[in-house]
Design brief:
alpha+beta, 7-stranded mixed beta sheet, 6-stranded antiparallel beta sheet, 9 helices, 32% strand
């Protein structure tokens, strides 16, 4: 009998693949994983130490069909806390792997890791890595933390743009704190990143997610539907209709941004996001916007409202038409007509 077979399963964890993944990771002899932090076809993996595993369950979300209420979503999740030393500084990375326990998941723990851009390191990876031993509170030897060093450019133009990115990150942080908007801050792709969860009642699961990266020359904002929505998209027979609908949205849907009726600025079109299906087989429906720092400085409040209100609202208002079409309840033409009525006739 393996050691991890002796771990007692919490009663609230009903999803087999989440539990099997927890046992797999908890039973690792060498607790090291590769994390791919670059969302392109090219890999950009870094070796990290698995510091902590946390199991959890969200509240059940109900849906109504033909006046009958039924349980639609129960997210069970496993959050991984990973750690490395990057350019001399200790860094932490969090990966929350979520599965809807109501729908049976035909997937292995290894496939679930791969879907979340993670993989277990093998012996050869560990032999060739550089480590630093972490000190524990009682002065005993702690875990060996992987060391990742990256070249740092110090040209004058890079420093100037980096300072501008840092200033805009601080401004956005002040805005988020002023309006009590929860966020998580970390380093991703070598730059500062903020991660959000937005409550969106019409979206599958009742929420969307988002990230902003503060690159040297511009900020990249992505807001996207959650894993439940991704699962609907992945299983749908109507992908070709989805591409037609997304093409229509990109060509014709330009909502005016507003400040929620406070009259600090007039409703207007300042940013034009692109909505698309990711090409990494993730089947994530995402809206992305590149924001120029000079423009952001001139239209600071409008841009901050755009990131935290406009983008989530747009996905929320589009959700019933996108997902009813993916489920075969309406045609693509009915989805287009519904979007026109919802966004422009009211």
């Amino acid at each position: 009998m393996k050691l991890n077979d002796l771990i007692l399963r919490p009663k609230e964890i009903t999803c087999d693949v989440i539990w099997e993944l927890y046992k797999l990771l908890e039973g690792l002899k060498n607790r090291y994983l590769w994390v791919d932090q670059l969302e392109t076809a090219e890999k950009n993996e870094k070796l990290m130490f698995l510091q902590k595993l946390t199991l959890g369950v969200d509240d059940v979300i109900y849906d109504v069909l033909d006046d009958v209420e039924f349980a639609d979503t129960k997210l069970e999740w496993l959050e991984l806390t990973l750690k490395d030393i990057e350019n001399g500084k200790s860094k932490k990375y969090y990966s929350k792997i979520k599965v809807n326990a109501i729908h049976k998941q035909e997937i292995s723990p290894e496939e679930l890791l791969e879907r979340n851009k993670l993989r277990i390191a093998d012996e050869s990876d560990i032999e060739n890595a550089v480590f630093e031993e972490e000190e524990s509170y009682n002065n005993e030897s702690g875990p060996r933390i992987p060391v990742n060093d990256y070249p740092i450019q110090i040209r004058r133009d890079i420093i100037k743009m980096g300072q501008r990115a840092g200033a805009m990150a601080r401004n956005l942080k002040d805005y988020l704190k002023a309006y009590s908007i929860p966020f998580r801050e970390d380093i991703d792709l070598g730059v500062k990143r903020f991660t959000f969860v937005f409550m969106c009642e019409k979206a599958p699961g009742g929420f969307t997610e988002g990230c902003i990266w503060f690159f040297d020359k511009a900020a990249e904002v992505r807001v996207y539907y959650n894993e439940l929505a991704t699962d609907i998209c992945r299983k749908s027979k109507y992908k070709s209709e989805l591409f037609r609908l997304l093409n229509y949205i990109n060509a014709r849907v330009f909502m005016e941004e507003s400040d929620g009726g406070n009259k600090w600025y007039e409703p207007q079109i300042l940013h034009t996001p692109r909505i698309y299906l990711t090409e990494d087989e993730g089947d994530d429906i995402t809206i992305t916007t590149m924001i120029n720092y000079r423009f952001w400085k001139e239209a600071r409040l409008e841009t901050e409202d755009y990131i935290t209100a406009y983008c989530p609202e747009l996905l929320d208002r589009l959700a019933p038409f996108i997902f009813d079409m993916l489920k075969g309840r309406i045609s693509v033409q009915e989805a287009i007509s519904g979007i026109n009525k919802e966004l422009f006739d009211n």
